[in-house]
Design brief:
With 282 residues, the protein is α/β, with parallel strands linked by helices. Helix content is 34%, strand content 12%. Strands 3-2-1-4-5-7-6 form a 7-stranded mixed β-sheet, sandwiched between helices. The longest helix is centred in the last third of the chain and has 19 residues.
Amino acid sequence: MEQLTATTTELVQPPETEYVLHRRFDRMGRLVGDQAMTKLFRTHVMVLGLGGVGSWAAESLVRSGVGKITIVDFDEVCITNANRQLHALQGVVGKKKAEVMAERLRKINPQATVVALPVFYNRENSEEILSGHRPDYIVDAIDNMTAKCHLLATCRREGIKVITSGGSAAKLDPSRIRIVDLADTKVDPMSAQVRKILRQQHEFPEAGKPFGIPCVFSEEPPRDPLPLFYDKGMGFKCVCPGKNDQHSCEHRNVIHGTASFVTGSFGLQAAGWVVRDILGEN
């Protein structure tokens, strides 16, 4: 019997012309029109935090035609990211999230300008990150409270448009996600804590007055994490190569459960808000 063998045929890709760029985003163009696509091609968005929210926001923005994107995250891909983060695939565990995600985004649109910054955003490097790569919009998907609040305060002071994410962990129902002013969220411990810090440390308006920053959040009450027994009582044991001391699971008091269809929906809502604002539809 004749033995079947697999063959690989290398396909010749079309040259990256302006026409090819528009063909790549033909379906988005048919929704919003040529002039809107030109606006998207010329817009620079920065996404800070490439977890279960930020990775989906970044990819959706590039798939919508945003022409320049800067992605900021110091962390490495962990095997536990596989349930919710787009870059978490076999073979990349232990690699920098920003670098892995940048490679993915360049494959979506080779004509996009993709800048990867594998650094931890904080007060010390804020000016270097924001001034050196000043964007038109920022998507804040940071989960470190100090860094998050400093970023939001800086955006307000510098006049950079920003949308922030509340807590997407411990939720199971994506239909309860909303976008409101950060001053008006409810049933969300993260955004409540952010408000408190912004008022106490960054001179944000008192209760009852808007912050002027849209926030993606969920009205669903958070769920307590359930105990798991697959480890036979050994406790958390890291199986990833290398270790990131700035964000080690072994040193966290509580690890909440997450669902990709919730965290991803947060990211898609944020990306949708940015795109609509670019097009003047918010």
